[in-house]
Amino acid sequence: MTSLSQTTSLGPNHERHSMPLMQERQTRSLEMLEPFILSFLAFLMALSGGVYLAFVLHVINSDALTRVLNAYYTIFSPKFHLAAMGFVWNPLPSIVELPIVLFHHWFPALITDGFAANLMSSVSSAFGMYFLNRILFYVGIPRFWRIVYSLIYALNPLIWLYSSNGMSEAMMIATMLGALHGAVRYLDDGRHSHLISAGLWLAACFGARYEAVPFGALVGLALLLALYLKGYSASRIQADLIVAGLPLIFAGLVWVFLNWTIMGNPLYFMNSAYSNASQIGTGSYNDKLILRDAHHLFYSLQTVAHFSFLFPPAIVGLAGALLVFAFSKKRRGQALLFVAALLTIPLFQVVMIYKHASAIWSRFFITYIPFGILLVALLMVVIAKGPWLVRHFLLLVSAAVLLGGNYVTFHEIQTPIMGKGVTKNFAHVVEGLPASQAAQNNGMTQGKIVANYINEHPHLVVLLDTFDSFSVVPFIKDPKQVVITSDLNFQSLLLNPRGRVSDFLVPNPGGVGALDAINRTYPGLWQGKVAWAKETKQFSGNLGYKLFSIGSSAP
Questions:
Q1: CA neighbor of 164 nearest in space, from 113, 101, 118
Q2: Are residues 165 and 245 in the same domain?
Q3: Do residue 421 and residue 463 come from a single domain?
Q4: Alpha carbon distance 165, 46 (integer Å)
Q5: What's the pLDDT tens digit per position in 169-192?
Q6: C-alpha to C-alpha distance for 203 and 243, rounded to whole angstroms
């Protein structure tokens, strides 16, 4: 009887205690699901954009396609070798795309329309969304406003475009946010697993973009200062920085080692004929802005500052960081990390622009957007205090500011300077450029014409440099009919072609075409000044392809 009365008396109490527990579990469950749901939405948004760009507008970015083809060359060549990806572009995008291109027999558009790149950037955008949302959580933004901030980020026109178009920006942002997420969590709880995570994401960032080096350096400096402000000992700070930085250093050393052992030049990725520096050195990208800024520090700083107007909330966030640092001792470390993350790429671009080594594309400044949002969020955590109405009014104002930033981005990327490198592609989206017209403007169209000619003449064995003739390869039916740059015997056949290949495919040596291996080896060939080579076919188009048969007096 006593036992029964105890049991019945525990029932209501247990219910009263279990209700908060159940609510807490539901809250935690929602918190766990939230980033995954948002990531899936970001993936769907990017993928729909990729489908629209690739199959409706037929807009393909040549850099994105190049990365797809770098993956494709590994299986296109007679002997499978990962080195076929090359040593100029960072390898991670092509490595991610490699298992995707294996399905090209069933879905040729993965190669011919470069859709493997769209898939890669769409997946990367999901990772970026996940880490952005998680950082907002650890900063302390309430759930509703976290979701609002996250959606504003995904809807930014520049973010959406580069999440959809197959370029490496989405992967760069995702890996940077992954590293920042680890650093923020380490400051919060001191668990070294988060620091290791930050280091691994930094290494992954190097696999995507060389900007990982200045990013790691500046964020590492910010982490050092943050740990010092927390009162960590010098030996602890030193050990922490080694843990965080070692994966990036190791990734860089491995890349240098591979360049050295395979290409014979440890800095091949920086100074080869195909490097960005060599391409810019041809003058193909020169315009008034680039020429004005070259070797002028003030103008270089002015240009980088001007590009902050791609997303003005970043300026608000930078100014707000001063308030955070002044009035919130707890948030100083986060403020240092976010400011360092935001300033890394602009400061790197100051150096590159000054050295005349940057094309000053607007996409180089895309990181103003995610890190600007994080700085605005951090400011809100510090100042949005007091009554519920006041807090949420300030958060509403901040969301309006971020939405206004998206509108400014939409406007600015359609202008000649601020939209440099993106205006044309974005105009296709805004204006709904007819597929046929876009296809005519697409370099793939010219490549397909050349490939069809080679396919129709099965006796031809054509040597071509994929640096400038990459758009030909996806449409070649028999790989034995072409010798491409990644083939192990390419250099030998280039120097001694007689009896081994029948023709050279030569692009116009104007602009970056001057870097084509055939044009570099045989100057004047395209103009018909090499006696043993006879022009047999000229193809229409701005790339100016010509086919030259190899004569009996050739080397």
A1: 118
A2: yes
A3: no
A4: 8
A5: 999 999 999 999 999 999 999 999
A6: 12
